[in-house]
Specification:
Layout lengths: L11 H6 L2 H6 L3 H9 L14 E3 L6 H11 L1 E3 L5 H12 L1 H17 L7 H12 E6 L2 H8 L3 H7 L1 H4 L3 E5 L2 H7 L7 E8 L9 H17 L11 E4 L25 H5 L1
Parallel strand pairs: 1-2, 3-5
Antiparallel strand pairs: 3-4, 5-6
Helix pairs in contact: 4-6, 5-6, 5-11, 6-7, 6-12
Amino acid sequence: MTPAPFTHPAFDAARDLADLGALAAADRLDALQAFLDAARPPVVNARGLPLRLVDDPAAGAAHYERRVHDAGQLAVRPDTWHDRFNVLAWRLFPRTKAALNARHVDDLDGHPGPARSRVRDALTLFDEDGLLVAVADPALEALVREFRWRELFVDGRARLASRLACVPVGHALMEKLRAPFVGLTAKALFVPVTADWFAAPWRERIAVLDASSAAIVVRAGSFATPRDLAPLPVLGLPGWWAANEDPGFYDDTTHFRPGRRAAG
């Protein structure tokens, strides 16, 4: 039932744009840096500094973000899939990742102290479990936000391929998708696209998603709270889980929850 690692449709863009075999073998800092350096154009932070990987697993969250922003140094543990996928996210979505980092630092400057703000909670949740949802039909976004899963995945199934596509950006989400499980839920950020986006090469599609999502991240008022990110049970997506070919799969409300709007 579960596709082999990297053959899952969640990794379609990554397979096209990066050598995932090299990522799998990159259990040393130099190998992981070489994987990152293969990106064109080179990956830089919000200040234009080249991103350099450093082995510093003890770095705290605030220090971690400031180090990326101020020095272009990303602390990683090369022997963990979690951190390797973070490097993959930087390679695929450099503008979005740089924007997230800059927004973290901006919020840290405005809210000194040990407590993490709601903005940083939202940024962290997206950085870990974020899913970019390219959508050419606003009605489909509404179905997700309103937890109308059968209308989305069963009644509207035929139109999804040409109107909605999902690409993981969160590195924890990528790690979970190596061995998906029922109940796996992402935090969706919707990116409006035109119909011709779906026929473009992956390099062009990812460039559009990266530029658009980065603009959303830095937009005033965005990411005000984690609730701004819509939960999306990703195994409902056609092709992402074999069992969802059966319409009865969507009757499982422990996975396809009715949400706050319908449950009340």
